[in-house]
Write a structure and sequence with these properties.
With 666 residues, the chain is an all-alpha fold. Helix content is 71%, strand content 0%.
Length: 666
C-alpha cells in the first residue's frame, strides 16, 4: 500500500467518526515510517532533510502525548541526519528532566550540536549556560560524575568566552533575549572589557523587541549615568516600560523614583502600589519598601501586622535590610511589646549573612542571655567572628574573654593581640588594658615604656582609669618611670574628677611609712573621699583608721558603720572585724547574735580566722546554742587551712579528725 492510499484511508476513517479505528490507523502510519522509508527508497529516494523532518514530527507527536522516551528516540534519528531542531529539543528534554534524569551538562551537549548548525534558540540557551554555569544537583552523590551515569559531568563552570561566542551569534541572528544578555556582559565586563556604550546598543536592540529586562537595564544606565548622561526622566520612562510588562525590579525602581521625586513628581500612593505589585511577585525589595510605608502609614495604610508579614517575607529570602529591620522591629517593639526571642533570631540571621554589627550583637545577646539562653562559648564565637571582620568593640570583648578564659581557653597572648587590635582602633578601655599587660608582662614582654605610651594615649582622651594606672607606674620604685611627684599629680587630677580608685590610691600613697608621719591625715581624708564614693577597700581602710585612731580621732561608732558598708559589699576581713566589734560591744551595745551572722559570712568566704572564731562560738555557745557538730566542721576547715589551734582543738575533743584536717590542708 502506498503512503497516499494510507492517508486516504485515514481521512475516510476520520470522516466516518470511527475514532478508534482512525487512531489505530494513524499509529500504523507513524510506526511504519522506517519500513516505508526503506521501501520508497527503492523507487524514489527521499532527501535526508525530509526523512529528518518526518522523524522530528514523529518525536513531536510523542512529546505532545508525554511519551518522552519515544520522542527522544525519534529526535535522535533526526539529529543523526543533521537536523538542529532535533538536537535543540533533546537539549530541552535534559534541561527539564522529561523522560531522562535532569542534566544541564547533557542539555549543553545537545544544544552545542544544534548551535553549531546555526540553531538560534540553541545558541541562546548554550550561551546562557556558559554565562551562568550550572551547579551539580544536590540529590546526586559526589561520585556521580565519575560513575558513567553522567557522561557529560554533573556541573558546568562559567565560561565567559564561550558565552560571548554563542550569545553573540544568537544576538546577531536577531534573538532579543541574547541581545539583552550581551548588554549585561558589556555592562559588567564579563568576558570582555566593560563597555557601557556597547551595553547601551545591545539593550536598545533588545528593548525594541520588547524585552523587559533590557528596558529595566536602560533605566539603570540613565539613572546612574553609565555611558550616557544622567537623565532621571529618561530612566523613569524606561522603568515605566519594564514595569508595564510586570518586571518586579522595574516596579521597585520606579517606586523609589516616585518615593523620592527623582525624575518624577513625588507620588507616595503610586510608590506604595508599585512596591506592593513587586511584593506580590515575591521581590524582597518590594516587600521591604512596602513594609516601611505600612509602618509609616504613608502611601499605604498604616498596618503594623501587614508590615511585619512583608518584612518576614523579605527576610526569609535573606534580604539583609529586611532582616535588620525585623531585628530592630522585635527588639524595640514598634508599637507592641518587644520580643527579644524573635529579635535574637533575626540578629542571628543577619549575622549569618555577614552583617558585622549583628555578629557583635549576637555575641552580646549570648553573653547576657538576651532572648537566648546564656552561652559564653557562643558569645565568644560571635565576638571573635565580628572582631575578625573589623568590629573594634568585639575585638575588646574577645580580648577580655581570652584574658579571663571565658568561653575560650585562657590565652594571655591572644588577649594582648585583640587588645592591640581594639586599641589601634581607638577603644580606650583596650588601650588601658594593653598598658596594664605591658606593665605586668602578661601575654607580652614586660615593657614599662610601651605600657606608659598606651596609658598616656588613653589618659589624653580623658579616661580617668588610664590616668590612675599611669600614675601607679610613676609611683612604683625600681623602674625608669619612677616619679612620685608626677604620679601624685596624675592621681589628684583623676581624684578631683571624681575617680574613686584614684582617691583610694592617694590614700595608699600617703599611708606609705615614708610619708605617713607628715601626711597621715591626708591619707585618711582621701580614704574617706573614696569610701563615700563607694570604694570598698577605702571603706575598710577608713574603718581601720577610725577603729585604732590612726591619724584621726578614734571613733568606734563610725568605724562600725564603715565596716558594715564594706562587709555588705563582700569584704571578708571587714565582715570579721565587724563581728569582733559587735561581740565586744564596740561602737554600740554588744550583739553576739549579729556577730555570729557576720562571722558566718566571712567564714563562708574562706577566712580562716573567721572559721576558727565561729567554731569557738559553736563550742562555747557564744551568740548561738552549743553545737559541737557545727564546731567540729568549722575546726576541720580551719585546720585544713593550716590553723594549728584548730588542729589542737580537734585533738582535744577526741574526734579522730586530725587526719581529715591534714587531708584538707593537703
Amino acid at each position: 500500500m502506498s503512503i497516499g492510499a494510507l492517508a486516504r484511508d485515514l481521512d475516510s476513517s476520520l470522516r466516518s467518526n470511527a475514532v478508534r479505528a482512525a487512531t489505530a490507523l494513524r499509529r500504523r502510519i507513524e510506526y511504519s515510517l522506517p519500513v516505508l522509508f526503506r521501501i520508497v527508497e527503492g523507487f524514489a529516494p527521499l532527501p535526508a532533510e525530509k526523512v529528518a523532518q518526518l522523524w522530528l514530527q514523529r518525536g513531536n507527536a510523542d512529546h505532545g502525548k508525554r511519551r518522552f522516551l519515544r520522542a527522544l528516540r525519534s529526535w535522535r534519528h533526526a539529529a543523526a541526519l543533521g537536523l538542529g531542531e532535533a538536537d535543540y529539543r533533546i537539549g530541552l528534554l535534559y534541561a527539564r528532566g522529561e523522560g531522562v534524569s535532569q542534566s544541564v551538562p547533557d542539555a549543553a551537549v545537545a544544544y552545542r550540536r544544534a548551535a553549531a548548525l546555526g540553531h538560534v534558540e540553541a545558541q541562546l540557551q548554550l550561551g546562557l549556560i556558559c554565562l551562568n554555569g550550572s551547579a551539580a544537583r544536590r540529590d546526586l552523590p559526589e561520585s556521580a560524575g565519575s560513575s558513567g551515569l553522567f557522561a557529560a559531568g554533573t556541573a558546568i563552570e562559567p565560561d565567559f568566552a564561550e558565552a560571548l561566542r554563542w550569545l553573540g551569534a544568537a544576538a546577531l541572528a536577531g534573538s532579543n533575549v541574547a541581545q539583552a544578555a550581551l548588554g549585561d556582559m558589556c555592562r559588567h565586563g564579563r568576558g570582555l572589557a566593560r563597555d557601557y556604550a556597547a551595553a547601551h546598543r545591545w539593550y536598545m536592540a533588545a528593548a525594541e523587541g520588547g524585552i523587559a529586562a533590557a528596558e529595566f537595564a536602560l533605566g539603570d544606565l540613565y539613572y546612574q549615568g553609565l555611558g550616557v548622561a544622567v537623565d532621571h526622566s529618561a530612566a523613569a520612562g524606561w522603568y515605566e516600560k519594564a514595569a508595564i510588562q510586570g518586571d518586579a525590579r522595574a516596579e521597585v525602581a520606579l517606586g523609589m523614583i516616585c518615593l523620592t521625586g527623582t525624575g518624577h513628581p513625588v507620588d507616595l500612593t503610586r510608590a506604595g502600589r508599585l512596591f506592593s505589585k513587586a511584593a506580590a511577585q515575591g521581590d524582597p525589595r518590594g516587600s521591604y519598601n512596602a513594609a516601611l510605608l505600612h509602618l509609616r502609614g504613608e502611601g499605604l495604610p498604616g498596618d503594623r501586622d501587614r508590615a511585619e508579614t512583608l518584612l518576614r517575607d523579605a527576610g526569609k529570602l535573606a534580604y539583609l535590610p529586611a532582616v535588620l529591620r525585623l531585628a530592630e522591629f522585635y527588639s524595640h517593639g514598634d508599637g507592641a511589646p518587644p520580643n527579644l526571642r524573635e529579635a535574637a533570631v533575626w540578629y542571628r540571621c543577619a549575622a549569618d549573612l555577614g552583617d558585622v554589627s549583628s555578629q557583635f550583637i549576637t555575641g552580646r545577646l549570648h553573653a547576657i542571655g538576651g532572648g537566648v539562653a546564656p552561652n559564653v562559648r557562643e558569645a565568644a564565637r560571635w565576638f571573635l567572628r565580628a572582631a575578625e571582620a573589623g568590629h573594634a568593640t568585639a575585638a575588646h570583648n574577645i580580648a577580655v574573654f581570652y584574658a579571663k578564659g571565658t568561653g575560650v581557653a585562657r590565652d594571655a597572648a591572644l588577649a594582648a593581640h585583640w587588645y592591640k587590635v581594639a586599641a589601634d582602633a581607638g577603644v580606650v578601655a583596650s588601650q588601658v588594658q594593653l598598658g596594664r599587660l605591658y606593665a605586668a608582662g602578661d601575654g607580652v614582654a614586660r615593657d614599662q615604656d610601651i605600657a606608659a605610651e598606651w596609658l598616656r594615649k588613653a589618659a589624653n582622651s580623658g579616661d580617668l582609669e588610664a590616668t590612675t594606672t599611669l600614675a601607679l607606674l610613676h609611683i612604683q620604685p625600681g623602674d625608669g618611670l619612677f616619679d612620685p611627684a608626677l604620679g601624685e599629680a596624675h592621681l589628684r587630677k583623676a581624684a578631683d574628677a571624681g575617680h574613686a580608685v584614684a582617691a583610694y590610691q592617694l590614700g595608699q600613697f600617703f599611708s606609705d611609712p615614708a610619708r605617713a608621719g607628715e601626711h597621715g591625715a591626708d591619707a585618711v581624708a582621701w580614704y574617706r573621699r573614696a569610701a563615700e564614693a563607694g570604694h570598698v577597700a577605702a571603706q575598710f581602710q577608713l574603718a581601720v583608721a577610725l577603729c585604732v585612731g590612726q591619724h584621726v580621732p578614734q571613733d568606734f561608732t563610725e568605724a562600725l558603720r564603715w565596716y558594715a558598708a564594706a562587709g555588705d559589699r563582700g569584704h571578708r576581713v571587714a565582715q570579721f572585724n565587724l563581728a569582733v566589734m559587735l561581740s565586744k560591744g564596740q561602737g554600740g551595745p554588744a550583739d553576739p547574735e549579729r556577730a555570729i551572722v557576720w562571722l558566718r559570712r566571712a567564714a563562708e568566704q574562706g577566712l580562716v580566722e573567721a572559721e576558727m572564731a565561729l567554731a569557738e562560738c559553736y563550742r562555747l555557745g557564744k551568740g548561738t546554742p552549743v553545737d559541737l557538730v557545727a564546731a567540729r566542721q568549722w575546726y576541720e576547715l580551719a585546720a585544713g587551712r593550716g590553723n594549728e589551734l584548730a588542729a589542737r582543738r580537734l585533738q582535744e575533743t577526741g574526734t579522730g579528725a586530725p587526719e581529715r584536717a591534714a587531708a584538707l590542708a593537703s
